[in-house]
Structure formats: structure tokens, C-alpha cells
């Protein structure tokens, strides 16, 4: 079993002090970067220019989460910037498998995300096409929302399917992940945890990362 990965989301960081904020999460596994286009979700963040600067500034590799329409057109550009992983939404992609193959070809880990209301079913037979699957644990668009436990059965079914075919796919959760919820997600099968407010809202973000990692590791060790 791999160690849990903790990916702080800079959506919860101070945007005008991003360099200093990045310096407070040196213990992170990946920096989670939420790109929103105000169409796929009702919020707007930033695009490739910002991602390029974060990439150049951060010693920690980037995990880009695209909450945008038409990822078939835009996602490859983020991989070309050097992001370690690029995750697009299944709901928005016209050709998800072709897009994932393209991302891998460029050299990024290929990720696919599903919203709380989207079934995991079509992904069960496609695990080999992706390096990571993101099960959203809130409606995408905003930080600071409450974790939705009703998404856990989807995660458990993906984890079961991955175990059956001995898949190396990473299972990621994003939204409301904190001290009170991370164990639930780890028990259900997650191995990669995005946390925004729980990390940047803490006095010491690196200590918060370590605390979350220890909690997740404990729950993962008890998984059957
Ligand atoms: C929500 C974003 C998340 C968000 C999580 O649409 O995808 O990455 O930053 O924030 P918290 O951890 O505060 O729920
Ligand atoms: Zn995200």
C-alpha cells in the first residue's frame, strides 16, 4: 500500500502572496491548482499564465484540477506547461479516453474527475486509461464547503474495481477534507487527499499537512 498523498489547494491561499504561501506547504506531495472558467462551475480563478508562474516558483510538483468546459481543447496546454498531473471533468469531456492518452503522451499523469452526482460506472472498465480518478466530495466551484459522505460508496466501488485488476490508479478526494473527514475517505479507499481550508486556514500549514497525513495513514492501515 502506498503512503497517503496530501495535496493542498491554493484556492484557499492568499492569491496576492502566492510565493510566500507556496513556501508554507513544503511538506506537500503536490500543489493542487484549481482552474475554473465561470462556465463549468460558477466561479472564476486563473488560467495557464498563473499555472506557469506557480510551476516556476514551486519546488513541489503541480496537480492541476480543471473545472472548465471543453477540456479536450485546453487540457493538453496545461500538461505542456509541465504540470505533473492534469485532471479534467468527465462531464465536460467529449473524448475522455483520447484526451487522457494525449495527456500521458505529453508526459503528465492523466486524471479524470466526477462530480457528486455523476456515476463512477463508466470508469470501472477504463481504470487503465487513467493515472488518477478524482471523486469530488463537494460540488465543485468553491472551497470551504462540507464533505458529502454520500459520495463514499462510489469511492469504495472504484477501490474494489482497482484492487480486482491490480490497478495502480490513484484515488483522490477533494472538498471538505479535514481532521474530521479524512479518515472516512481513507477507509473508503482514497489514497490522495486535496485539502484547501484545512491546510491554509491552519496557523502552521506544514503541521496541518503532517497531521492529515498521519490520520489518513492510520485509516488506510486498517482498510480491509
Ligand atoms: C472545489 C475545489 C477544491 C477546493 C477544496 O471546487 O476543487 O480543490 O479548493 O477546498 P476545501 O478543502 O476548503 O473544501
Ligand atoms: Zn480541486
TrEMBL record:
Active site, UniProt feature: 34 (proton acceptor), 174 (proton donor)
Cofactor note: Binds 1 divalent metal cation per subunit.
Pathway assignment: Carbohydrate degradation
Keyword Secreted: no
Cofactor: Mn(2+); Zn(2+); Co(2+); a divalent metal cation
Entries under Gene3D superfamilies matching the protein: Aldolase class I (3.20.20.70)
InterPro entries given in the database record: Aldolase_TIM, Ribul_P_3_epim, Ribul_P_3_epim-like, RibuloseP-bd_barrel
SUPFAM superfamilies xrefs: Ribulose-phoshate binding barrel (SSF51366)
Keywords from the named record: Carbohydrate metabolism, Isomerase, Metal-binding
PROSITE patterns assigned to the protein according to its UniProt record, in alphabetical order: RIBUL_P_3_EPIMER_1 (PS01085), RIBUL_P_3_EPIMER_2 (PS01086)
This enzyme's EC code(s): 5.1.3.1
UniProt-annotated binding residues for substrate: 9, 65, 141-144, 174-176, 196-197
Residues reported in the UniProt entry to bind a divalent metal cation: 32, 34, 65, 174
Role according to the record: Catalyzes the reversible epimerization of D-ribulose 5-phosphate to D-xylulose 5-phosphate.
Family: Belongs to the ribulose-phosphate 3-epimerase family.
Protein name: Ribulose-phosphate 3-epimerase
Provenance organism: Microbacterium binotii
Gene: rpe
Amino acid at each position: 500500500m502506498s503512503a497517503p498523498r496530501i495535496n493542498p489547494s491554493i484556492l484557499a491561499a492568499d492569491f496576492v502572496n502566492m510565493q510566500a504561501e507556496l513556501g508554507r506547504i513544503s511538506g506537500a506531495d503536490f500543489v493542487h491548482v484549481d482552474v475554473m472558467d465561470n462556465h463549468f462551475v460558477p466561479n472564476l480563478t486563473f488560467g495557464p499564465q498563473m499555472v506557469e508562474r506557480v510551476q516556476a516558483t514551486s519546488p513541489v510538483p503541480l496537480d492541476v484540477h480543471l473545472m472548465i468546459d471543453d477540456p479536450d481543447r485546453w487540457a493538453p496546454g496545461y500538461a505542456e506547461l509541465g504540470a505533473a498531473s492534469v485532471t479534467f471533468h468527465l462531464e465536460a469531456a467529449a473524448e475522455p479516453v483520447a484526451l487522457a492518452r494525449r495527456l500521458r503522451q505529453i508526459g503528465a499523469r492523466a486524471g479524470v474527475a466526477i462530480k457528486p452526482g455523476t456515476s463512477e460506472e463508466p470508469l470501472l472498465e477504463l481504470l487503465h486509461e487513467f493515472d488518477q480518478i478524482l471523486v469530488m466530495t463537494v460540488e465543485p466551484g468553491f472551497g470551504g464547503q462540507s464533505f458529502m459522505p454520500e459520495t463514499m460508496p462510489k469511492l469504495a466501488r472504484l477501490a474494489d474495481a482497482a484492487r480486482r485488476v491490480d490497478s495502480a490508479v490513484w484515488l483522490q478526494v477533494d472538498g471538505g477534507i479535514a481532521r474530521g473527514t479524512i479518515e472516512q475517505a481513507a477507509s473508503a479507499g482514497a489514497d490522495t487527499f486535496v485539502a484547501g481550508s484545512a491546510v491554509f486556514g491552519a496557523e502552521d500549514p506544514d503541521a496541518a499537512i503532517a497531521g492529515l497525513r498521519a490520520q489518513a495513514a492510520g485509516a488506510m492501515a486498517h482498510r480491509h
